[in-house]
From TrEMBL:
NCBIfam families according to UniProt: PRK00522.1 (NF001808)
InterPro entries (UniProt xref): Redoxin, Thioredoxin-like_sf, Thioredoxin_domain, TPX, Tpx_CS, Tpx_Peroxidase_subfamily
Name of the gene this protein is made from: tpx
SUPFAM superfamilies assigned to the protein according to its UniProt record, in alphabetical order: Thioredoxin-like
Similarity annotation: Belongs to the peroxiredoxin family. Tpx subfamily.
GO MF, one annotated term: thioredoxin peroxidase activity
Lineage: Bacteria, Bacillati, Bacillota, Bacilli, Bacillales
Function in brief: Thiol-specific peroxidase that catalyzes the reduction of hydrogen peroxide and organic hydroperoxides to water and alcohols, respectively. Plays a role in cell protection against oxidative stress by detoxifying peroxides.
Native species: Paenibacillus oryzisoli
Residue ranges constituting the Thioredoxin domain according to the UniProt record: 27-176
Protein name: Thiol peroxidase
């Protein structure tokens, strides 16, 4: 995992009220979505290109084993049923793929795709959500259209807060 020369962003987020440092650029609406490599399982890597032609809601959570992350993943799993085949919801965390799989099985999560940023932190670095101090990805929501243009961004300023589900879903609905 190469973290040299990564932009460091301070003063933009906290964890339990304590400041954290985010590594990577701040993604903005209108940007071309950066590519990334994450793991679908221990051996299978996927990238942005694997979801070409689809609208992508990328739900980033620090760990599926926390209450807010669990609720966020469950909420988008329920919403996925209403969105059609042209939309994919990706939940990305640094959890190991088998921990994600165990969580999904126990929680009945079967509509979102869980992907792991554990190996290279490629997603976290590319999307500016990698927390320098603890090597987890910050909670965030990105919506990327079928042409890989970023159409919605929400970086949470406090890690324990929930994202604005309604705003994200409204932005998503305008694209499908």
């Amino acid at each position: 995992m190469t973290q040299t020369h990564l932009q460091e962003r301070t003063g933009v987020a906290t964890l339990g009220g304590n400041p954290i440092t985010l590594l990577g650029p701040e993604i903005k609406v209108g940007d071309q979505a950066p590519d990334f490599k994450v793991n679908k399982d221990l051996m299978t890597e996927v990238s942005l290109a694997d979801y070409a032609g689809k609208v992508k809601l990328i739900s980033v959570v620090p760990s599926v084993d926390t209450g807010t992350c669990d609720a966020q993943t469950r909420r988008f799993n329920v919403e996925a049923d209403k969105l059609g085949d042209d939309v994919v919801i990706l939940t990305i965390s640094v959890d190991l793929p088998f921990a994600q799989s165990r969580f999904c099985g126990a929680a009945g999560i079967d509509k979102v795709v869980t992907l792991s940023d554990y190996k290279n932190r490629s997603f976290g670095q590319a999307y500016g959500v990698l927390i320098k101090e603890i090597q987890l990805d910050q909670r965030a929501i990105f919506i990327v259209d079928a042409n890989d243009t970023v159409r919605y961004v929400e970086y949470l300023t406090e890690m324990s807060n929930h994202p604005n589900y309604e705003a994200a879903l409204e932005a998503l609905r305008t694209l499908v």
